[in-house]
Design brief:
Radius of gyration: 18 Å
Strand content: under 5%
Distance between the termini: 38 Å
Number of helices: 3
Number of strands: 0
Structural class: mainly alpha
Length: about 110
């Protein structure tokens, strides 16, 4: 259930550490250049990983033939509820990754 948000957190940390190290090694007005490509690759990898975890959540949610409010006392309902919660958290994490990637698209240099 926490795999999607953890992936977003690692993406956020990796992007800002990469940008900070790049700008520390280069001058203050240097363009991001190759670092921007690496940041886009990190974003694509994070989105693929989140999509994979979301797919697992979707499969857990759709397992069985139970009705949608998964609020029963059984382990099947509990598993389906956790699958739905995982799927929704993965969707939120994908939006957060795209929002973090907005900085990559807008900011072009180290200023």
């Amino acid at each position: 259930m926490v795999a999607g948000p953890a992936t977003w957190a690692l993406h956020f940390l990796a992007c800002y550490v990469l940008a900070a190290v790049w700008c520390a090694k280069m001058s203050r007005v240097a363009a991001l250049g190759e670092a921007r490509i690496a940041l886009w690759v990190l974003t694509a990898v994070a989105l693929v990983v989140i999509a994979g975890f979301g797919w697992r959540g979707w499969r857990a949610h759709r397992r069985g033939r139970a009705a949608v409010p998964h609020d029963g006392p059984g382990t099947g309902d509990r598993s389906r509820f956790l699958g739905l919660a995982s799927l929704l958290l993965c969707g939120l994490s994908a939006v957060a990754v795209l929002y973090s990637a907005l900085a990559i698209a807008i900011i072009g240099d180290c200023r």
